[in-house]
C-alpha cells in the first residue's frame, strides 16, 4: 500500500499567488491526495507531520540551474532540495553536457572544464565511460540510469551545439554547419530537451549572430524556450533585450531572459527601462519571461573580463594570445580606456570588486584581483594575465557590480522568476553562495524582512 503522510497545523500556499491559509495536506504515495481545512482529514494509517508555525508550499522551480552534472556525481546533490527546489532547468548560458562529436571532443572538454568539475564519476563505477556519450538522448539515458534528486528539465546549450557541429571557429556558421546544428538540435528536442540556451558573452556562443540563433530557435516551436545569457548586461542591456525579443519574434518561440541585471556603476538603473521593455513586449503578445537571483554580486568565468581582442578564437588561441609579451599592456589599456560596445566590468567596478571563486590549482581562491596583484607583486593587469595563463583559463570569479536598488526592483517585479545560477555541484573553491542560498535569501531577506513581495505571490515565482 502507498505510504500516507498527513501534514497538519501549517499554513498552505497554493503556489498560484494566494496568501497561505490554515489547513491540512494528505499525501498518498507520490501524490497530494487531499487539501482541507484543519482537522477534516482522517489520520488513519498515516504518519503525521506537524507543520505548526510553518508554511506548506509546492516545490520551487529553479529556472536557471547549472546542475546538469548532478545525476553523475558520486553522492546525491542536495543543494537545491534543501532550499525547497524540486525542479531544475539545466543547460543554461550556452553550456550543456551534450551533444558531443568525436572530432571536436577536445574542444568541448576544454569548454566544459571551465564550468563543470569532471563528470565521469558515478557512471565510471557502472563500468561505462560517462563522457563517451554523443547525442543528447544517450546523455539523458546515462543521467536517468544514475538517478535524479530533483525533476530535470534540460536545455541544449548553443555553445555546446556549435562545438559539436564545427568546433570553436570565430565566425558565423556556414550553411552546412547550420544544417548540422539544426539536425543535432532536432535530435535533442526529440529526445526530451525543453529548449535552447545561449551564452553570448562566452566563446563560442559570442561568435554567433542573431540570424544563426533565430534559425536554431525556430526549431523550438511555440512551447519550448529559448533562454539567453545576453550579449550585454551593462550599458548595452537595452540592445541585448531587443536582440532576444527579435530572435523570439522571428523564431515564434518563448524567450527567457536569464539573470536580468545591470552590471557596473555606469549601467545602474538600466533594469527599470529593461523591465518596462519586457512588460511592453508581453503587452503586445510576446511570450517572454525573465529570472534573477537575489544578490548584488554575480559570478562567471574570469575570461569574460577580457576585452574582445583577447577573447577570440579557440581556448588554445586565447591562451597563446595571453602568453605574448604585449598581452598585459593591451589588457591594461583596454581596461583603462574601454572599447566600443564592450562591457568593461573591471573598469566599471574596480580590481577590488572581483574575487576569484575557483581556480584549477585552488591557489587563488578567495582573493580579489587587487589582492592577487599584491601577492604576485605585479600590476593588476599583469596579475590577471598570469592567473589566467597559469590556471589555463579554468578560473571563475565573483564580481560585486550591481546596485541593491536594481536587485530590489527586479525582484519586486511580478514576472520575475527566481533562478539560482549556482555553480555546478562538485565545483571546488569558494563559489558564489547563490547555489545554496538563492531561495531562502529571497524568502528571508526580501519577502519576510524587507516585505518587497507578499509571501503568496513570492511562492508563485
Ligand atoms: Zn549566464
Ligand atoms: Zn547561468
Description:
The chain has 461 residues and is α/β, with parallel strands linked by helices. It folds into 3 domains: 4-56, Urease, subunit C, domain 1 (Roll), CATH 2.30.40; 60-296 and 403-460, Metal-dependent hydrolases (TIM Barrel, Alpha-Beta Barrel); 301-400, no CATH class. It is built from 16 helices and 16 strands. It has helices at 105-113, 121-125, 136-146, 158-166, 175-191, 210-217, 237-251, 271-283, 315-323, 327-337, 345-349, 369-376, 380-390, 404-412, 434-449, 455-460, and strands at 4-12, 21-28, 31-36, 47-50, 55-56, 60-62, 85-90, 151-157, 195-199, 225-229, 254-257, 288-292, 297-301, 354-359, 395-400, 416-418. Strands 6-7-8-9-10-11-12-16 form an 8-stranded parallel beta sheet. Strand 1 (4-12) and strand 2 form a beta hairpin. The protein starts with a strand and ends with a helix. Residues 121-125 have low confidence and may be disordered. One zinc ion binds next to loops.
Amino acid at each position: 500500500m502507498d505510504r500516507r503522510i498527513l501534514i497538519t497545523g501549517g499554513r498552505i500556499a497554493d503556489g498560484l499567488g494566494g496568501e497561505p491559509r490554515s489547513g491540512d495536506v494528505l499525501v498518498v504515495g507520490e501524490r497530494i491526495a487531499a487539501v482541507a481545512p484543519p482537522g477534516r482529514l482522517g489520520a488513519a494509517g498515516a504518519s503525521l507531520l506537524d507543520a505548526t508555525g510553518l508554511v506548506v508550499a509546492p516545490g520551487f522551480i529553479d529556472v536557471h540551474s547549472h546542475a546538469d552534472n548532478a545525476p553523475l556525481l558520486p553522492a546525491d546533490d542536495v543543494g537545491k532540495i534543501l532550499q525547497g527546489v524540486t525542479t531544475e532547468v539545466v543547460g543554461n548560458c550556452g553550456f550543456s553536457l551534450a551533444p558531443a562529436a568525436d572530432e571536436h571532443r577536445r574542444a568541448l572538454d576544454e569548454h566544459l572544464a571551465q564550468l563543470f568539475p569532471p563528470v565521469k564519476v558515478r557512471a565510471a563505477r557502472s563500468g561505462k565511460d560517462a563522457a563517451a556519450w554523443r547525442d543528447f538522448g544517450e546523455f539523458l539515458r546515462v543521467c536517468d540510469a544514475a538517478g535524479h534528486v530533483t525533476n530535470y528539465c534540460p536545455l541544449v546549450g548553443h555553445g555546446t551545439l556549435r562545438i559539436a557541429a564545427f568546433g570553436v571557429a570565430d565566425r558565423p556558421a556556414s550553411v552546412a554547419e547550420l544544417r548540422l546544428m539544426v539536425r543535432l538540435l532536432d535530435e535533442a528536442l526529440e529526445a526530451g530537451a525543453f529548449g535552447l540556451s545561449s551564452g553570448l558573452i562566452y566563446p563560442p556562443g559570442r561568435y554567433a549572430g542573431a540570424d544563426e540563433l533565430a534559425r536554431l530557435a525556430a526549431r523550438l516551436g511555440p512551447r519550448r524556450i529559448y533562454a539567453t545569457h545576453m550579449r550585454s548586461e551593462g550599458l548595452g542591456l537595452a540592445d541585448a533585450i531587443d536582440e532576444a525579443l527579435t530572435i523570439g519574434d522571428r523564431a515564434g518561440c518563448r524567450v527567457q531572459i536569464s539573470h536580468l541585471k545591470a552590471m557596473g556603476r555606469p549601467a545602474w538603473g538600466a533594469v527599470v527601462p529593461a523591465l518596462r521593455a519586457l512588460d511592453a513586449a508581453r503587452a503586445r503578445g510576446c511570450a517572454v519571461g525573465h529570472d534573477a537571483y537575489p544578490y548584488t554580486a554575480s559570478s562567471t568565468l574570469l575570461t569574460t573580463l577580457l576585452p574582445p581582442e583577447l577573447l577570440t578564437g579557440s581556448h588554445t588561441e586565447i591562451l597563446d594570445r595571453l602568453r605574448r609579451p604585449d598581452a598585459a599592456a593591451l589588457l591594461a589599456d583596454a581596461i583603462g580606456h574601454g572599447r566600443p560596445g564592450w562591457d568593461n566590468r573591471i573598469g566599471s567596478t574596480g580590481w577590488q570588486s572581483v574575487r576569484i571563486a575557483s581556480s584549477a590549482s585552488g591557489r587563488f581562491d578567495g582573493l580579489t584581483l587587487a589582492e592577487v596583484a599584491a601577492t604576485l607583486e605585479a600590476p593588476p593587469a599583469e596579475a590577471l594575465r598570469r592567473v589566467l595563463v597559469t590556471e589555463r583559463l579554468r578560473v571563475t570569479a565573483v564580481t560585486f557590480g550591481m546596485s541593491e536598488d536594481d536587485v530590489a526592483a527586479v525582484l519586486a517585479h511580478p514576472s520575475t522568476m527566481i533562478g539560482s545560477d549556482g555553480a555546478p555541484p562538485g565545483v571546488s573553491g569558494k563559489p558564489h553562495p547563490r547555489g545554496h542560498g538563492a531561495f531562502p535569501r529571497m524568502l528571508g531577506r526580501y519577502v519576510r524582512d524587507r516585505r518587497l513581495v507578499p509571501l503568496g505571490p513570492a511562492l508563485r515565482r
